[in-house]
Design a protein that fits this description.
The chain has six helices and six strands; from the N terminus they run ββαβααβαββαα. The chain has 170 residues and is α+β, with helices and mostly antiparallel strands.
Length: 170
């Protein structure tokens, strides 16, 4: 936990398998009126112009997994990251950001058409520096769902996860 866990634009999720917390993801909706997010704090120089011009961004961060359990469930990253895709769809986001270690950049580029925006930088409360990757969800969302139909979701499914936050933050 850290100071970014609270706020009107924050949603925290846990993925439980057989009743055991196996992965988690925190999402921030970043808009002109609420830029509270770790990515915006660290990479504001890259994100500021996009947000100031009206882009809406989902900042997916603190993606963690129980390593021994995750090895038993190779689909776990996709299940967990589906939450970010659903959030982008629900909130009408233009972009999805992730702050990732260098060794994970290629995964996001391959699976989500992400673009690496900068070399790794120091990141609050973490030892390893992280790079910012951006997914142009407005342009590539359909491509992501065509590649992996699993990412499609119903309005009802998204509403059940995000409606309280939609009313509080936007």
């Amino acid at each position: 936990m850290d100071r970014f866990d609270e706020g009107a634009n924050v949603s925290n999720f846990g993925i439980f398998i057989d009743g055991v917390l196996t992965s988690a993801l925190r999402l921030h909706l970043v808009t002109r009126t609420n830029t509270w997010s770790p990515a915006f704090e660290v990479f504001g120089d890259i994100l500021r112009d996009r947000i100031d011009s009206g882009a809406r961004l989902i900042d997916g961060n603190r993606f963690v997994a129980d390593y021994p359990r995750a090895r038993s469930f190779p689909q776990l990253p996709y299940v967990t990251l589906r939450l970010g895709i659903m959030a982008a769809e629900h909130f009408g986001a233009d972009l999805i950001a992730a702050s990732v270690r260098s060794e994970h950049v290629a995964f996001y580029q391959r699976e989500y058409f992400a673009e690496k925006m900068c070399e790794p930088r120091p990141y609050p409360s973490l030892v390893k520096p992280l790079s910012l990757i951006l997914i142009d969800y407005a342009r590539r969302g359909d491509d992501i769902r065509a590649r992996h139909p699993f990412y499609a979701s119903s309005a009802g499914e998204r509403t059940s996860l995000f409606e309280v936050k939609a009313n509080a933050c936007c």
